[in-house]
């Protein structure tokens, strides 16, 4: 889903740090969180009204599906405002939902499908097709970075590692 508002550079940095924290906290593969972000495409403060409920924040947490907000309030001590406006709060809520759905299904793909909706229908299938596309793109980018890192390592032996990577971790 595409919205008019893009994240600023500062917001993207906060999102990256939040994703790093949440993926470690809940043992979620990083590409899963990034694909979910790319699919949802929200921003801090976003509130999209859909069919009597709202999707809020960066990861578009649904305010009615499975009554997530009361659960998030109880388990994470985050109220609706923190989920809607805080990058870390919204990322933690999304990670928590994924963790719960993964525990239910044993599959990250199914967990992401349930994140969107539990009902097996065409809308869920389209959502999962989008997620799968993003996961494929992320995998290809990761493989390209690994090939580039190897090329730099093997084709520039005269440079020190610090000079070859300029402090960038390609892993």
**pLDDT averaged over residues:** 85
- Poorly predicted runs: none
> What sequence of helices (H) and strands (E) makes up the elements?
HHEEEHHHHHH
What composes the largest sheet? 3 strands, antiparallel
**Adjacency order of strands in the biggest sheet:** 1-2-3
Instruction: Give the CA-CA distance, first to last residue.
Output: 30 Å
General shape? globular
Question: Hey, roughly how much beta strand do the residues contain?
Answer: 5-15%
Which percent range fits the helix content?
Answer: 55-70%
The number of helical runs is 8
Rg, Å, rounded: 18 Å
Number of strands: 3
Estimated structural class: mainly alpha
Please explain how this structure is put together:
The chain is mainly alpha-helical. Helix 2 packs across helix 7 (122-155) and helix 6 packs across helix 7 (122-155). A three-stranded antiparallel beta sheet has the order 1-2-3. The chain contains eight helices and three strands. The longest helix is centred in the last third of the chain and has 34 residues, at 122-155. The model has no long low-confidence stretch (mean pLDDT 85).
């Amino acid at each position: 889903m595409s919205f008019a508002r893009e994240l600023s550079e500062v917001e993207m940095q906060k999102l990256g740090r939040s994703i790093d924290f949440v993926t470690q906290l809940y043992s979620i593969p990083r590409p899963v969180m990034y694909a979910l972000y790319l699919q949802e495409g929200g921003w801090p403060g976003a509130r999209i009204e859909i069919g009597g409920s709202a999707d809020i924040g960066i990861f578009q947490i649904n305010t009615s599906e499975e009554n997530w907000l009361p659960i998030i309030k109880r388990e994470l001590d985050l109220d609706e405002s923190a989920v809607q406006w805080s990058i870390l709060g919204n990322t933690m809520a999304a990670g928590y939902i994924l963790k719960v759905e993964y525990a239910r299904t044993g599959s990250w793909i199914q967990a992401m499908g349930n994140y969107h909706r539990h009902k097996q229908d065409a809308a869920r299938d389209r959502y999962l097709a989008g997620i799968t596309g993003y996961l494929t793109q992320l995998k290809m980018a990761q493989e390209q970075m690994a090939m580039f890192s190897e090329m730099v390592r093997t084709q520039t032996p005269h440079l020190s590692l610090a000079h070859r990577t300029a402090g960038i971790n390609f892993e």
